[in-house]
Each structure stands twice: as C-alpha cells, then as structure tokens.
Amino acid sequence: MDDTQSTKPDFAGPFTSVPVEITVSVGRARPLVRDLIGLGENAILTLDKRVEDPVELFVGDQLVARGQLEELEGDQDGRLAVRLIEIVTVPDGKE
C-alpha cells in the first residue's frame, strides 16, 4: 500500500467521485506596479517564503492543508508532488 492509500477516510456517497481542483501556493509577492511593469525574461520575483517552508493547499479560496514539495522518482521522475504535513480544520458553517 502506498502513502496516499494509508490514511484515507472511508467515505461513501455520490459525491466521492467528483474531482476537486487543489491549488498549491508556494508563496506570494507584492511588487509595486512600476516594478511589475519592468519585469522581463529572466527577471527574479522574490517570494515571501523560503525553499524549505511548507506550501499551502487551497480548494477555492479555502486553505485545507500544508505540505512539503517533493520530486517523484521512477517512471514519474522529475514530477512534483506534495507530502501533506498538516490538515487544516475548517470551522463548521464557515463559507
């Protein structure tokens, strides 16, 4: 059994096969418009995170988890993945 299968909750129902898009955020930048306009090829945009900092996983605009980026090996060599390190508790009734 691989890591993705080991801690799956046992849910049943018609919505379990609906795909959900997850956005992974590695950081944010807040440049001034004048600086943004001046960006060109090979420009560097500094983010508010370090390489070793956790990434954030969002469904829509809701933060749902944090994780560490990893590079896959084998037949998926070079592809990125996220190892979950924290599941964020969403308060009931929050929209």
TrEMBL record:
Q: Which residues form the Flagellar motor switch protein FliN-like C-terminal domain?
A: 17-88
The reply to whether Isomerase figures as a keyword in the UniProt entry is: no
Tell me which SUPFAM superfamilies the record gives.
Surface presentation of antigens (SPOA) (SSF101801)
Query: Coiled-coil ranges per the record?
Result: none
The lineage's top-level taxon is: Bacteria
Q: Enumerate the InterPro entries for this protein.
A: FliN-like_C (IPR001543), FliN_T3SS_HrcQb (IPR001172), SpoA-like_sf (IPR036429)
Any one Pfam family here would be FliMN_C
Keyword line: Cell projection, Cilium, Flagellum
Family membership, please give it: Belongs to the FliN/MopA/SpaO family.
Name the chain's protein. Answer: FliM/FliN family flagellar motor C-terminal domain-containing protein
Species in which this protein is naturally found = Ruegeria spongiae
